[in-house]
């Protein structure tokens, strides 16, 4: 049975996770963000079985593991985590209607569920403001951190889906949260559900 | 004085013009699409003065005029028309609140007016259906016509604005009209106004 899923893809600092949570709350359905999905993947045994089969789990930059830790079959721990998270997302969608933030859920679920795919983005300035507010100052400037994060996110997405991240045509609705405001985005999404 | 403008960029066959017209009607403001803007540009004297200064106006494929008819200063008739249309769009925005469809209006007006920039797109299948319905069969298949039109539109946009057409981050809101339906798109846009 198909459930109704909202997938939220977002630029770092655009409030995508907040929008996902608030929309889910309004609709009375759960919201799974990337932290939660990683946790489930690790604890659920999906990841454990993969990890056991393939040796030690080495944490570290995904770039490092994606391109240098690959074993003889071209497989990496990042791939294991991807596979585990993918299975988690598929089983969540099978189980209930929900909001899923990030983790290429839009790609994973596109033929599997009745999905509303959303892309949240915002102006560099507003994003910079937001990440300093939410995560504090760091050594690098906020703008540098944002550009870096965008690159990683786009590369991750393209690597695992072969699609370009952030192209308007790949989402049912894309919203500039900085211009429209978080509340308006939440409202539009809940109306569309 | 700044007026409130809605600019609609759209894929051919996604119903962008229809959405623009219906939204404008609901909001009680005029809608200027590309046909109307070209007409105004030609009749207004903007184009006439440019055209007189630079000799005969040679109709033909824009690609031909853009890349081979350029005169000694690198100027073409396509450029003249672009300049004239740009001035028309700026003066329309100065005069009244309105909806403007196409013609890179989002780019032209971005710092000039209080703009809501919208991008309308849809799945290839739905678009193919729509253009056959609206414009009838042609020698080429609908999908071929659509891909061709997309390429021209993207190239025109990029040539005159140096920006990529269809990138989600360049619009306040992007909507898949095939998935959401024309009426829903109209409703969302009018709500946001």
Q: What do you see in this structure?
A:
- The structure is a homodimer of 193-residue chains.
- The two termini of chain A are 18 Å apart.
- Chain A is built from ten helices and five strands; from the N terminus they run E-H-E-H-H-H-H-E-H-E-H-H-E-H-H.
- Mean pLDDT of chain A is 84; it is low at 53-61.
- Chain A is α/β, with parallel strands linked by helices.
- Helices cover 55% and strands 13% of the residues of chain A.
- Chain A has a five-stranded parallel β-sheet, with helices on both faces.
- In chain A, helix 3 runs antiparallel to helix 5.
- Chain A has one domain (4-192): P-loop containing nucleotide triphosphate hydrolases (Rossmann fold, 3-Layer(aba) Sandwich), CATH 3.40.50.300.
- Chain A is globular.
- Chain A has helices spanning 16-27, 34-43, 46-54, 62-67, 77-95, 105-108, 124-135, 142-161, 177-180, 182-192; strands at residues 4-10, 31-32, 98-101, 114-121, 173-176.
- Chains A and B meet through strand 5 and helix 10 of A and strand 5 and helix 10 of B.
